[in-house]
Amino acid sequence: MHNQKLPIWYHDLYTNGIDVKARFPRDRYQKLLTRLKQSESWDYIEIKSPRKITRNELLIAHSIDYVDRFLAGNLDIKEEKRIGLTPWTARMIERTQRLMGGAIEATEYAIQNGGITGNMAGGTHHAHRDFGSGYCVFNDLAVSAIHAIDNLRLDKVAILDLDVHQGDGTATILQDRDDILTISVHCSTNFPFRKSVSDYDIPVEPSTGDNGYLQQVEKAIQLCLEFEPDLVLYQAGVDGLETDSLGKLSVSRNGMMRRNEMVFNSIFEAQSIPIVVFMGGGYSKPIEHTIDAFEDLFTQAAQFSQKL
Questions:
Q1: Residue 233 has pLDDT above 60, yes or no
Q2: Do strands 157-161 and 180-187 pair parallel, antiparallel, or not at all (unpaired)?
């Protein structure tokens, strides 16, 4: 008998580990938790506190030099600025360890129990093997996928990345892994401006809107199912919203909800494939539009969890 509550990993450092002066909208994590507590779905959500990822777990997807220098607080200013989240706080290291630990634990739980799990942060797809970029220190998608196969004995894992930005770091780290499928649906003219090569890249033109976007999402889901994965890692960024300052795709809140419904229905409900939800990007101004879409995401995940 499965636990029907949706397990979500969350830590206060997801917000408090980022300086208040940083350009990144750090309050979105705390605001989302508050919103979920006030929602009708709260009874079907279980918040879990993440452990810190270990050095050895990071090394399955990242270089020794980069991991050790980050953990020792020895990245140079240029490296920190490339990642963003500046000015860095003393808690940035533990924040990153907890965020990555939440991804690992959500992945392990999904494999052991089936169903849907989530980390209320992450989707750090711009982190490469030996450097971070675009608000991403380490790549939680790559680490979780490799961990699932090499340590937890799954045969195949698919990464379905529907963030508005290409999952470039994920693509480069996993380019030689035939047992991990990388799919990225993203805006064709957005960051990163030098694209990597995923197994399947599905670029979407700016201002496409709901119908055109969802047609490409459907294509991505079918490619995912054809791979017949044992687990799907869903990067569910909502920065394709029409209100997003870094977006360009002009997708409505309802369009995002339809997207999530398609993913959960086709992969989990129809095929019983476990799904781990990674939050991904969301930078609307005001940030409340982003919070709306993330509340929808986890509410929908909780509703589908009831169907176990």
A1: yes
A2: parallel
